């Protein structure tokens, strides 16, 4: 067992399935042209995003999370998704395996070192010229007041270290401050949920 949080796993889909539905669909639409490609959801939680992809004909899907409880739910989908119970900052995957790595709502909740390690690991396992698709929060002049209040409330309820990390992520310019420009190039950027959520697609820049 790597990590267990039964309660969170049980309430995650009942609470977040509907609010996240339009985001899941938007992510799928971005990925339609990669249907035949190898796609990993890093920190996949209950596997909700990949289930949607699987239902729409994506075939090479990998789901990785550190929580047994989240993955127990992911396994119920009974699809061909390959499931891994591992730490996303040091996976067992070989270099340059995936065409696309998704990291969805998984960066903001971690401390700075873990955030950086997660992105570094994604870089390592993405193929030359492959893509990283990140879904996460942003608070800036395009974020509505309502969006800020709702997201801050949700993160406040999560509490503890999660909330401290969220506040620090927001104060430190979020994803922008974590992406190294010589490693990833931003190729597409969408905003949703009252301007508080972004879907960012980065292309890997191979170092050699
Ligand atoms: C907020 S949930 C997001 C889940 C999913 N990606 C989504 O969009 O709904 C964050 C997930 O990250 C997982 N997680 C946290 N630290 C991790 C780590 N070091 N390695 C792998 N998964 C991790 C948690 O278990 C949790 O399932």
Structural commentary:
By secondary structure, this protein is an alpha/beta fold. It has a single domain (6-204), classed as 3-Layer(aba) Sandwich (Rossmann fold). The chain has six helices and seven strands. The protein has a seven-stranded mixed beta sheet with strand order 3-2-1-4-5-7-6. α5 packs antiparallel against α6 (160-171). S-adenosylmethionine binds at residues 43-45, 48-49, 65-67, 70, 87-89, 104-106, 109.
Write the layout of secondary structure elements.
Elements: H1 6-31, E1 38-42, H2 48-55, E2 60-65, H3 68-75, E3 82-85, E4 98-104, H4 112-125, E5 126-137, H5 145-158, H6 160-171, E6 184-192, E7 197-204
Parallel strand pairs: 1-2, 1-4, 2-3, 4-5
Antiparallel strand pairs: 5-7, 6-7
Helix pairs in contact: 1-2, 1-3, 5-6
The protein binds S-adenosylmethionine.
S-adenosylmethionine (SAM) binds at residues 43-45, 48-49, 65-67, 70, 87-89, 104-106, 109.
Give a short synopsis of this structure.
This protein has 208 residues and is of the alpha/beta class.
């Amino acid at each position: 067992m790597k990590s267990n949080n039964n309660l969170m796993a049980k309430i995650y889909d009942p609470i977040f399935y509907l609010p996240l539905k339009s985001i899941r669909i938007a992510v799928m639409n971005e990925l339609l042209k990669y249907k035949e490609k190898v796609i990993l959801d890093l920190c996949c939680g209950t596997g909700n995003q990949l289930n949607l992809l699987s239902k729409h004909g994506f075939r090479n899907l990998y789901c990785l999370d550190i929580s047994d409880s989240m993955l127990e739910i992911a396994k119920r989908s009974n699809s061909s998704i390959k499931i891994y119970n591992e730490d996303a900052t040091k996976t067992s995957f070989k270099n340059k395996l995936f065409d696309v790595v998704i990291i969805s709502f998984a960066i903001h909740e971690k401390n700075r070192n873990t955030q950086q390690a997660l992105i570094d690991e994604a870089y390592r396992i993405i193929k030359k010229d492959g893509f990283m698709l990140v879904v996460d929060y942003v608070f800036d002049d395009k974020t509505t007041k309502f969006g800020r209040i709702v997201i801050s409330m949700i993160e406040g309820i999560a509490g503890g270290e999660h909330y401290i990390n969220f506040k620090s992520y927001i104060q430190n310019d979020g994803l922008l401050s974590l992406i190294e420009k010589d490693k990833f190039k931003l190729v597409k950027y969408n905003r949703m949920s009252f301007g508080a959520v972004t879907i960012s697609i980065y292309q890997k820049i191979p170092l050699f």
